[in-house]
Amino acid sequence: MEMRCNPWRWLWGLLPLVILGWLTVKLEHPRIEADLRTRTEAALKDAGLDWGATAFSGRDGRISGRALSEGQPAQAVQTVRNVWGVRVADDDTDLLDKVETYLWSAAAGDKRVKLAGFVPDQALRTQVLALVKAKFPDYAIDDRMELARGAPETGKWLAALGFGLDKLTQLKSGEVGLASLDLNVAGEAKSFSTYKAVKASLRNALPDQVKVARDKVTPPFVAPYTWSAKRSATELVLAGHVPSEAVQNQIFEYAKSRFPKLVIIDRLEIAAGAEDNAGPAYRAVLTELHDLVEGEAQATGRAIVVKGEAPDKAGAERVRAALKANVPSPFTAIADLTYPEPKPAVVTPYVTRVEMVDPDAVRVSGFVPSEDDRKSLLQRIAKSLDGRRIIDELQLGSGPADGWQACVMAGVDGLKRLGNGITVLTDRALSLTGRSADEDLASALPKELRAAGNRSCDSTVDIALDQPPEPNLTWRASYDGVGEIVLEGEVPDAAAKAALADAALKSFPTARVSDRMTIAGGKSGKWTKVASSGLGLLSRLRKGQATLSGAELVLTGEAKDTSVAAAVKDQLQHTLAKGYAGRDVIEVRSDAMIWSEAEAKRKAEDEARRQAEEEAARQSAALEARRKTDEEARRKAEEEANAQRDAEARRQAEEAARLVAERERL
Q1: How much is the pTM?
Q2: Which residues contact 92 (CB under 8 A, 6 or more apart)?
């Protein structure tokens, strides 16, 4: 069957295909345009041209936005054209405005930071906002910055901006601004320390090429406004507030010139709120403070009070008048001053005397420098002498030596130890006179008086001893060096006997004590101490004897070395009670000597034993030799006797044989 081609039928088949293609193109255009826009803007961002925006109609694009520099529009067009799929890229860009003076500012207050001025691009805007947020984390940020060309070098501009923000954080409220790299700072500092820190950094720590065009940073405001100056013998302390660093320096330099011998301690803080003429008023006060012995000034607001001690009444009146005349308005100055009473006439020689008139009363006479010194001295005397009644005959007089009261009290303390006597201080010469039955006290008082006077006075002590005669007894302690201590002889009383027995037990804790002492009568504290000393010294010897005969203590015996012997000798000569003497007859026998003697004795005994053994051996040998000789002689005698008997028997036998022979012949 023959088939024929019908063109109309072909047309009807192509028509749906055309419609389908047209619909496909219409539907894909938005997706293609969005894809091209996304990829071209990403390419612009990667190239650092993110100010540019693109729009597409199909594959034909257009670039718009405000470029940051003159070469960037062409660079942006070329970047878009290089993106795959872009057919055409038209340039519809413009340049940012360029400003001659590149301004920027930040103002902080009420928990808000307001940013104004220019920023080079969006990236730096983001960087600046992040920096502000980091430094003011609790503040709201009002960003009114605009993009503009003409900024200084980025690194230096950001360094200046960050430095300004650091200063802003140290202000209660304020503003920092940049005109190119010229810095403006204004506001009230948060504290005295931050004010000093801000001022110092604005002078000495500016970033490279940054200059301070305007510094309006003010110190903290204080109310009430205070200032003070306190003078002692060695220093002047300045404290409180001053209106400026210049006033602070003026006051410090004036204080140095007015008080050249004092240490000036400056504790002043710079603060707002001062009255007019504060600097001149404070300097006028320092002028008058110089003429006081010691004192202080306190200013609160407009009122100034000066307290202290003037050298005399006339000096106090002069300071009052000068303060009234020289302290400028609006300040008023009040002087609350004291001054010493006129000193009494100078006395020479300067004599102060303290005398024990009876067990209950003491008389104090002579001179005292002032009523305060009189009160102080009498109180100290009453306390030292256990509240004895004081007869006050003191008179006022000037001219005591340094350390006057200490020297008088040194003498009073000596009177207390004695319980009687008189002490007199004449200028620097202190004397103490009295009586005592205590020899140790009489010996100790001169040293005690010198120490108490502490070189303020030269002291002499005259103590009369009231003591009974010492007993004339003979007493002995003997130690055998093995285990027995024998006490024998005479003692004054039962107390001395018991004390010596107890001393022997303490000095010889492992020895047996044999008490053979007898009570002879008498009384003495020194005798028992001397005998006890003898026991103590005897305990240091290997063996020996301590003999107290009359007033002489003799120690005999053996010492283990020369140091012990020397120590015993020294104590015998220097430590016995006054009136007693010591002597020693001590042989030094060291451990080495005793060992050597024992070794020599052992060797001698060994030698004698060896010689005895040798003699016994010789005698035994001699006896054995004699025995052997006697035995040999006996044997020989027996042999000779046997030989004689044998000879006699042979002779008899021969004689018998001869006789037989003769008979037979016959």
Answers
A1: 0.42
A2: 62, 63, 64
Identify the three-state secondary structure at position 482.
coil
* Pair type for strands 146-147 and 112-119: parallel
- Work out the widest C-alpha separation in the chain, in whole angstroms: 226
Backbone Cα Rg of the chain: 63
- Give the pLDDT of residue 569: 92
pLDDT exceeds cutoff 80 at 538:
yes
Neighbours of 213 (CB within 10 A): 14
Residue 527: name the closest of 404, 395, 439, 429 by CA: 439
What CA–CA distance (Å, rounded) separates 636 from 371?
138
pLDDT tens-digit map of 197-230: 999 999 999 999 999 999 999 999 888 999 999 9
The two three-digit tokens of residue 412, written as one number? 């009073």
Give the C-alpha distances (Å, rounded to integers) separating 309 from 260, 265, 338, 341. Answer: 20, 21, 5, 12
Q: Which residue has the tokens 């020996």?
A: 544
Q: What angle do the packed helices 245-258 and 278-289 form, to 10 degrees?
A: 20
Per-residue DSSP letter, 459:
E
Nearest to 365 by CA among 323, 391, 393, 403: 393
Cβ-in-10-Å burial (0-12, 13-18, 19+) of 172 comes to: middle
SS3 276: coil
The helix, strand and coil proportions of the chain, stated in percent and rounded to the nearest 5, come to 45, 30, 25
Residue 297, strand partner residues = 229, 306
- pLDDT reported for residue 30: 79
Q: How far apart are CA 406 and CA 346, in angstroms?
A: 20
375's CB contacts (< 8 A; 6+ apart) are none
Nearest to 219 by CA among 274, 296, 154, 301: 274
Asked if residues 340 and 313 have their Cβ atoms less than 8 Å apart, the reply is no
* Per-residue exposure over 409-419, b if at least 16 CB sit within 10 Å of its own CB, e if not: bbbbbbbebbe
Angle, helix 72-81 to helix 7-46, in steps of 10 degrees: 140
H or E stretch covering 125: helix 122-135
Tell me, what amino acid is at 604? A
DSSP 510: T
Half-sphere exposure of 453 (CA within 13 A, CB side): 27
Are residues 226 and 299 in contact, defined by beta-carbon separation less than 8 angstroms? yes
Q: Which of 231, 225, 226 is nearest to 255 (CA)?
A: 231
Residues forming beta bridges with residue 184, ordered by sequence position:
177, 214
Cis peptide before 30 (omega within 30 of 0): no
Q: What is the pLDDT of residue 2?
A: 47
How far apart, in whole angstroms, are the C-alpha atoms of residue 567 and residue 572? 9
CA 192 → CA 67, 137, 175, 219, distances in Å?
Answer: 47, 24, 19, 7
